[in-house]
Amino acid sequence: MQQNVTFELRTDHITLDALLKATALAFSGGAAKQMILGGQVQVDGLVEQRRGRKVRANHVVRVHTPDSVHVIHVQAPAENGP
Which keywords has UniProt assigned to this entry (predicted)? Predict the structure, then answer.
């Protein structure tokens, strides 16, 4: 089963481990690290094993869990008014 998630950045990037925590796919930094080092996470179709990888707008992150695949679509920060 695939679940799609949209994540809006607050700055120009977020680290991969922080993204997993912010989207509640990892309950802690240690859990995020295990997922990343375990090969469960892809950025733009490639397995990524650097937890400090900078994820920017338009990147697509796939997280493979035992029961599903979570696809995170990363969006640019919302524009503030003039």
Answer: RNA-binding
CA distance 22 to 5: 11
- To which residue do tokens 């650097």 refer? 50
pTM: 0.90
47 membership: H or E segment, kind and range: strand 46-47
Closest alpha carbon to 17 in 7, 27, 8, 9: 27
Residues 62, 8: Cα–Cα separation, whole Å: 16
Q: How many residues in total does the chain contain?
A: 82
Residue 36 lies in domain: 2-75
Q: Give the type of residue at 21.
A: K
Q: Domain of 45: which CATH number?
A: 3.10.290.10
